[in-house]
Each structure stands twice: as C-alpha cells, then as structure tokens.
Specification:
mainly alpha
C-alpha cells in the first residue's frame, strides 16, 4: 500500500508501522477526540 505511494519497494516493517499509525489516527478521528499536532 505505502510502497505504491512512494513508487518504490520499502521495508515491510516500515509499511506495517505506517499502517498502524494511520489506523490509530483514524480511530481518534472516529472517536471525535481533540487532536493537537
């Protein structure tokens, strides 16, 4: 998934970590919490 965005092969561990981060962020959005960046 992420490798398509970067148009290259990347480490599967990195891809998994990014996927987890995106999932956690999505959960925060869905839970309607305040998000400060």
């Amino acid at each position: 998934m992420v490798s398509i965005i970067f148009d290259q092969q990347i480490n599967s561990e990195i891809e998994q970590n990014v996927n987890i981060l995106c999932t956690e962020f999505l959960e925060k959005l869905l839970s309607n919490e305040e998000i400060y960046t």
